[in-house]
Amino acid sequence: MIEADNILISLDRGLTEGKVIRNCAILCRGGKIYAIGGASAFDQAHRHWHLDLPDCYAMPGFIDCHSNGLGPYSLLGDDDPGAALKGMATEFARHGITSFLPTVTASSRSQLPQRLARLAAALGELTEGASALGIHLVGPFINPVKRGAVPVEGVRPYNRSELEEIITACAGRLKLMTLAPETPGAEELIRLLISHGITPSLGHSTAEAREVLRSIDAGARRCTHLFNCMTPLHQRQIGLASTALVDERVVCELIFDGSHIHPQMLDLACRSKSHKAIIAIGAGTRGTDLPQGTHRYKDGAVIVDGQHVRLEDGTIAGSVTTLERHWPNMLLHTHLTEIQAVACFTSTPARSLGLRDRGTLYPGMRGDIVIMNAQHEVEVTLVGGRITYIKNPEKLKKP
Which helix (H) or strand (E) holds 335? Predict the structure, then answer.
């Protein structure tokens, strides 16, 4: 991390929801975006540092709401969640991700509260790299038929006392919880989550439309990785995927790696939902961004196989690529323009999580910025106005 406050960044353009700023300049001071606009307006601006990147463009930093791990780091079984979080936060910055929601799958009832408590404590100690926003818990109240990479012991019927144990263990850090709408008691579960400021998300499900609609009416407004771990689209059997696509109250996570979901299905979703209702997620896990082959660890192995990370039993456990690689896929495979597509990686996930201080390039917002070159490769990442990754440090100069 480079402590370079009061930095002026000159670029080809700045992209934010609804706007393209040509010949753009961004001035960051005190961890925030102090000013942004045409570069000519900044000729006399007082700054301590200057970063001139005329062939690059800037966007708000990517926000990844769904990541179990990255590279050799995992939140699924590590004894030391602090080390995993620190490694993930550092590596995420290299990929233009400035905020992330550490995601864990449920385990047995006897183990889960302790695991969550350790993770919650580790979140409070994270000081460098991408910002960890809280905990996203997948399960335990999901359909075992669609459990995906959630272990068998991590799936069970809804129990109010267990939910209260989970909430207590997370000590205010639980921000998002994935549940199946067909779970008996789902409406009560959803209302309790909302009352504690936790966002319920529908997923890992074989629900019929009436069950999905009951959960939406109870307050659920989000769908976890649309199309994955749920009943496929069918012309007569309506389930979670089709209902989430047409119900305007629901925002949908989507994996844009080009392999989890066929590109035409990605475009179908983006034509059905507004860009204000699509959230691009990385779906990362241990193995993401690692070379092809089998990678063994003390608590198991993962196999990087083509475009997927798999468990040893063949179950797809995550994507091999991170959000900056998903970004050009959205531009390639959907009808969305740049200023529409950028919202799916930035402002839409921010709004969904109730974050008002990030997700757009605007004065007063956090200095969370990713700068990419013409090949859509990350050149610079700023988190809170501080450079957490720079590909070519010699380009940062004093005026």
Answer: none
Task: Compute how many other C-beta atoms are within 10 angstroms of the C-beta atom of residue 357.
Answer: 12
Report the alpha-carbon distance of residue 364 to residue 361 in Å, rounded.
Answer: 9
Cα–Cα distance for residue pair 56/13, rounded to 1 Å: 7
pLDDT digits (tens, 9 = 90+) for 198-212: 999 999 999 999 999
Which H or E run contains 12? strand 7-16
**DSSP 8-class letter at 382:** E
Which CATH number fits the domain 62-352, given the four candidates 3.90.1150.10, 3.20.20.140, 3.40.50.1100, 3.40.50.300? 3.20.20.140
Cα 49 from Cα 71, distance rounded (Å): 33
- Within 8 A by CB and 6+ apart from 68, the residues are 74, 75, 76, 103, 104, 105, 149, 284, 285, 286, 317, 318
Map tokens 């580790």 to a residue: 122
Q: Which CATH class is domain 7-59+359-397?
A: mainly beta
Residue 243 tokens read as 């209902």
Give one DSSP letter per residue of 280-310, joined into a string. EE--B-TTTTSPSEEEEETTEEEEEETTEEE
Give residue-wise pLDDT tens across range 99-155: 999 999 999 999 999 999 999 999 999 989 999 999 999 999 999 999 998 999 999
| E-only strand ranges, 157-256 | 174-179, 199-202, 222-223, 251-255
Structure tokens at 29: 């001071």
> For the chain, which residues make up each domain, given as ranges?
7-59+359-397, 62-352
| Same fold across 7-59+359-397 and 62-352 | no
3 state SS of 28: strand
Model-level pTM greater than 0.85? Answer: yes
The 3-state DSSP composition of the chain as helix, strand, coil percent (nearest 5) reads: 30, 30, 40
Nearest CA to 10 among 37, 39, 41?
39
What's the gap between Cα 151 and its chain centre? Answer: 22
Query: What are the Cα distances from residue 82, in Å, to 71, 100, 120, 264?
Result: 15, 15, 9, 39
| Measured distance CA(100)–CA(126) in Å, rounded | 12
